[in-house]
Amino acid sequence: MGPAIAMSADVVVTRRVAAPADVVWHVLTDWPAQGAWMPLTRVDVLGPGDGREVGARLEAWTGVGRAGFLDTMVVTAWDPPCRCEVLHTGRLVRGPGVFAVRPLGPRECEVLWEVNRPGMSGDSVPWEGWSHAREYVEEVPG
Predict the structure, then answer these.
(1) Phi, psi of 35, rounded to the nearest 5 degrees
(2) Which of 14, 52, 57, 117 could tie 95 with a disulfide, CB 3.0–4.6 Å?
(3) Pick from 111, 65, 112, 120: nearest CA to 88
């Protein structure tokens, strides 16, 4: 297990993926299917639609059974197939986050996953969960 990252630190993960950018974009933003590549996570779209628009509200539960945490968020920017920005509004994770996809060629792209200033009671408390962020993004099917 890697070192804990303080909750006040930004999390930025980039990953090259051997798949077209538009395919990867679709996988990243298929909110209900994120559990296929983000272990122990279930994402629900709150309200009508598929969550692929500004103003969409999402809930992500990460954990097993009742042991885990709820990450609520609102989509604040939507620029397919390049960029999705959210505002995390939960008690544990708060602040802006980004999924961005940059084409590197017809069959390859780079994914950026960024969570800025996640909040937690006692903003400097280390939280082991962020040390696994890279593993989750690397599980995106190519």
Answers:
(1) -60, -20
(2) 117
(3) 120
Total number of domains constituting the chain? 1
With a CB cutoff of 8 Å and minimum separation 6, the contacts of 122 are none
Separation CA 125–CA 59 (nearest Å): 23
- 111 sits in which H/E element: strand 108-115
C-alpha distances (whole Å) from 89 to each of 18, 38, 84, 102 are 33, 20, 16, 27
Higher pLDDT among residues 100 and 9, named by residue:
100
pLDDT number for residue 6 = 36
pLDDT of residue 54: 98
Residues 6 or more apart whose CB falls under 8 angstroms from that of 105 comprise none
CATH number of domain containing 89: 3.30.530.20
Judge contact between 73 and 95, C-beta under 8 A: no
pTM of the model as a whole: 0.75
- Provide the residue range defining the domain that includes 133: 5-138
Cα(91)–Cα(80) distance, integer angstroms: 29
Write down the residue that tokens 């070192």 correspond to.
3
